[in-house]
Structure formats: structure tokens, C-alpha cells
Amino acid sequence: MITEITEASIKKERSIARDLRSSTWWKRKCAVGICYYCNAKVPAKMLTMDHIVPVARGGKSVKSNIVTACKTCNNKKKYLLPIEWEEYLRGLD
Predict the structure, then answer these.
(1) Spatial CA neighbour of 54 closest among 79, 74, 71
(2) What angle (nearest 5°) sits at the alpha carbon of residue 40, between those of residues 28 and 65?
(3) Segments forming the whole domain that contains residue 34
(4) Residues 31-54: what's their mean pLDDT?
(5) Which of 55, 81, 83, 87 is most exposed by smallest CB count within 10 Å?
(6) Per residue in 46-91, pLDDT tens?
(7) What is the CATH number of the domain that holds 33?
């Protein structure tokens, strides 16, 4: 079953993500200080929340789909799906 991605569903998922940002779970993830994508050590305040499968592409704001990312990686990844991100990285070689 394919779920339609609507502005309302995106807004709902982003609201859930905002709530998660204030959770102990998220604060612990940030305290580790590692970017999920490049493995760089990053100060907690410099980490951003990234959805592995972007909300705009049908991803959900659940713990298994949310990772810490440095701003550089998050800006480069944008709305890419994991397979598209892998292809992007291979293209840099």
C-alpha cells in the first residue's frame, strides 16, 4: 500500500520531530557527537537532526529513521534516499 505524501502529513511528521528534539533520547544522541554520515566528531550544538528517509519522500519521525548529522552532510544529503546518497558518495571517488 502506497501512502500519499501530503503537506498535512509532512507538517505532522515535522511536528513530531520537533518534539523529539527536546527528548532525553535526542540529547543523548547529540552528546555522543558523531555525524551518522561522515563519522566526524562534532560538538553537540553543531549536530542537526536528519531523517534517513526524508519526510518529503515518505519517511516518518521515528527513532529508527532519525540520526545526528553535521550541517555539511545534512545540507548535501537534502532529500536523497539512502540508495541515492550512496550513489552520490560513489560519484565523488
Answers:
(1) 79
(2) 50
(3) 7-92
(4) 96
(5) 83
(6) 999 999 999 999 999 999 999 999 999 999 999 999 999 999 888 8
(7) 1.10.30.50
